[in-house]
Amino acid sequence: MTRTRKHAYLFGTAFSVLSFGMAIDALASDKDDPAQAQSSFGCSGLEDVSELQMIEGKDGMFFRILADLRLQHAFTDQTVDNLAAMAKALEKNGTTLIYVPLPTKSQVLPELVPARASLYGFDANIAAEIYDDVVRRLEAKGVAAVDIATPMRGNNRNQFGEYAFFQADFHWTAHGAGIAAKAIAEKIKTLPAYEDVKPVGFAMQEVKPEPEYSSMRELLQKHCVTHVPTVTAHAYQAVREEAAADAGSMDIFGGGEEATIALIGTSYSDKPISNFAGYLEHWSGIPVDNYSISGGNQFGSILSYITSREFQEQRPRFMIWENPIYNNLGQYGGAPWSEIVAASLGDCGTSVDVKPVDEKSVAGDLSSLKLGQDDVLLADIGSDVSRNVTFTFTGADGTVRTRSMERGDRLRATGRYFLSLGGIPADAFGKVSVSFDAPVGETTALSVCKTKTGEQS
């Protein structure tokens, strides 16, 4: 599909680029076209649903107003810098990061967006330019980012008439996931880390899709008279054809094992019916370990995996991080990024002697260490049973400061917490006690990690 480019300034809010005249034109268009103004499914009040405001487009395609039609995405320069620091830290230990901003429905299927969407600030050309701008900025900072929106737009419907996204749900179909995976694989094959990879064959075989529950469709149906499209489509699984020969000669980690991809993502990567991981294997020829988490939001899967012992002990050749473009990676400030970068680098060679205080706590002395704002404390209970930890710092003057961290129920419990010391005054680093929500043991440890790739332990 050919897209006409417009030169536009990307203001802080999408509504800055719209005129009142455009809104009037959209209303007139809807009135002039009764088929467009009237729902094909007898739906009413969708734009006023408190749980999830929606709008009906063409050919039974429904869009979320807030997530799918917005033009403002909080992808700041600081976020780009954080991703660049993460990529550099991972590369230092042999893992290449590939970041995949996942486009919205409207960025892939603008021809199905109703004219009325302009009332909410939607403009297809600006939406496409904003997505492209994110990819360009990441690439300029040395992050391997993949534009999957363009190929998905160019091939947004398969031979069965299935679109790249489900009509009554916001997730992508197997067709959409497959197109995206092919673009990512093409990017991977251009990277230095792929040069000595011996591909493995993965064939895609059609399987009967499992029933797919969709909270969006369920909510949608309550406001429609006839049945809206079901969340089903042709589904496929990846079947390995052959093992890689002479894997030891191609392994850069010295473990004699074949290259692997760690897939970190959201529900888009976690849904079996779409099988994004399988398509990545098919198009890249590299086995994929899928660590995606549904409902983990922007950081759930990455924190669960990157803080794990599994990651530290056997790092993948490639890490693909999929995140919808509307996810705000600056929402929680610098705390998650300090964890991500420190865990990516894994430079935690300075140990702190600790002694048990009670069943669930240990204590240590930090006063002899030269700690700075860029340092991170790693508290490791020694097993995967803990979800909560509290650090209590007591300064030389007796001032007490506490910091707590929690892994929600949707995250993996790794028992490893990376606490940034940023924002804590230097005179606070006297005594420290670390309290977990589970019993400590002989393997419970406290150490200092670096976040700067040029520093040495």
TrEMBL record:
InterPro entries: ALGX/ALGJ_SGNH-like, AlgX_N, SGNH_hydro_sf
Domain AlgX/AlgJ SGNH hydrolase-like span(s) in chain numbering: 55-324
Transmembrane spans: none
UniProt entry tagged with the keyword Transferase: yes
Keyword S-adenosyl-L-methionine in record: no
Main location: periplasm
Pathway per the UniProt entry: Glycan biosynthesis; alginate biosynthesis
Record CDD domains: AlgX_N
Signal sequence, renumbered to the chain: 1-28
Protein keywords: Alginate biosynthesis, Periplasm, Signal, Transferase
SUPFAM superfamilies: SGNH hydrolase
Domain of life from the UniProt record: Bacteria
Cell location: Periplasm
Entry protein name: Alginate biosynthesis protein
